[in-house]
Amino acid sequence: MDLGIAGKRALVCASSRGLGRGCAAALAEAGVDLVMNARGAEALETAAEEMRAACGVEVTTVAADITSDEGREKVLAACGQVDILVNNAGGPPPGMWQNWDRDDFIVALDANMLTPIALIKALVPGMMERGWGRVVNITSQSVRAPIGVLGLSNSARTGLTGYVAGTSRQVASAGVTINNLLPGVHATDRADSLDGGVAKAEGITLEEARSRRESTIPVRRYGTPQEFGAACAFLCSQHAGFIVGQNILLDGGATNLTV
Ligand code: NAD
After folding, report:
1. Is 140 a pocket residue for ligand 1 (Cβ < 6 Å)?
2. Which of 2, 34, 244, 255 stands the most exposed, by the fewest C-beta atoms within 10 Å?
3. CA 133 to ligand 1 center in whole angstroms
4. Ligand 1 pocket test, candidate residues 36, 88, 180, most atoms within 8 A of CB
5. CB under 8 Å to 221, separation ≥6 — which residues?
6. Are strands 133-138 and 84-87 parallel, antiparallel or unpaired?
7. Three-state secondary structure call for residue 120
8. Whose C-alpha lies nearest to ligand 1, atom 25?
9. Residue 35 has pLDDT above 90, yes or no
10. How confident is the model at residue 194 (pLDDT cuts 50, 70, 90)?
11. Where are the alpha helices (DSSP H) in 56-188?
C-alpha cells in the first residue's frame, strides 16, 4: 500500500533503538525525511546511516535528552517545519506504590506526559496552518490496564491520554490527527531490562523470565519493533485521516478486554 506521505518530514523522538527506531524505519521506508533524536550520539548516527542507505531519505540527527528543556530546544531548532511528530522517551523505572515520592512523580510526568505535550504545543500549530499533520504518541498498555510495578508509568501516561482525548478533537478540523499507540510487550532493550529485574528477584534465568511472560500473551511471543513501526506509519499515512484521538493496543491480545 502506498502510504501517500513520501516527501513529508517527521520528528521521531527517542529513535536510536527499540520502538522509536521501528517507527523511524517504517516512515523512512514510506519516503519520509527524518529528524531522529536519542540521548547517545553513536547509536543514533548508526541508525540514521542505516535509514539513509536503505531508503535514500534525508536524516538529521540530534543527540539530546528530549525530556529536558534544553534538549527539546535543541531538537526543535534542528527540526524546523515537520508534518509528523512521533513522541517517545524512555519509560519510568518499576517499583512499589508506597515508595515513590513527589520527585519520582515529577520525573515521570516530565518524561511521559509533559514532554509530549510540549512538543505537541510547539509543532501542531504549524501543522494546522499548513492544513495537514500527524501526531503519534507511544504510550503503553498500562493506560488500558494498570501494571502494578509500573505505577509511575500508569499515572503519567494516563495524564497524557486525557490531554490527547481533548486536544485531538480540537485540531482535527485543521487536518491534524493525534493518536496514541499502546505497546504491550515488545522485544527491545526495555523488555530485556524488565525481564532482567524479574529474573534477579526470582532467581531464574532471563530466558525463563521471558518464556513465562510469553506464555501470558495469546500470540505466545513478544511483538517486534518492525510490526510496531508499520502500525505507526499507517497512522501517519494519508489513509488514516479519519482516525482521531484513539488508543490502539498492540499487545498480541494480552490485555483481556472486550472493547
Ligand atoms: P528502549 O529502551 O528499547 O529504547 C529507548 C530509546 O529511547 C533509545 O533509543 C534511547 O536512546 C531513547 N531514549 C530514552 N530516553 C530518552 C530521552 N530522555 N531522550 C531521548 N532519547 C531517549 O525502549 P522501548 O522498548 O523502545 O520503549 C519505548 C517506550 O515504550 C518507552 O517509554 C517504554 O516504557 C514504552 N513501552 C515499551 C514496552 C516494551 O515492551 N518494549 C511496553 C510498553 C511500553
Report:
1. yes
2. 2
3. 23
4. 88
5. 214, 252
6. parallel
7. helix
8. 190
9. yes
10. confident
11. 69-79, 102-109, 115-130, 151-171
∠ CA 33-36-42, nearest 5°, is 130
- HSE, side-chain direction, 13 A CA sphere, residue 207: 0
Q: Which pTM value belongs to this model?
A: 0.97
Q: For ligand 1, is residue 134 a contact (CB within 6 Å)?
A: no
What SS3 state is found at 128?
helix
223 lines ligand 1 (CB under 6 A): no
Average confidence score pLDDT of the chain? 97
Going 188 to 141 to 107 to 134, the CA torsion angle's sign is positive
Nearest alpha carbon to residue 245 among 157, 147, 170: 170
- Sequence-ordered list of residues with C-beta below 8 angstroms from that of 246, at least 6 positions apart, any chain: 179, 180
How close is the Cα of 163 to the center of ligand 1, in Å?
21
Q: Is 18 in the pocket of ligand 1 (CB under 6 A)?
A: yes
Buried b (16+ CB within 10 A) or exposed e, 49-83: eebeeebebebbbbbbbbbeeebbebbbeebeebb
- The answer to whether the CB of 136 falls within 8 A of the CB of 232 is yes
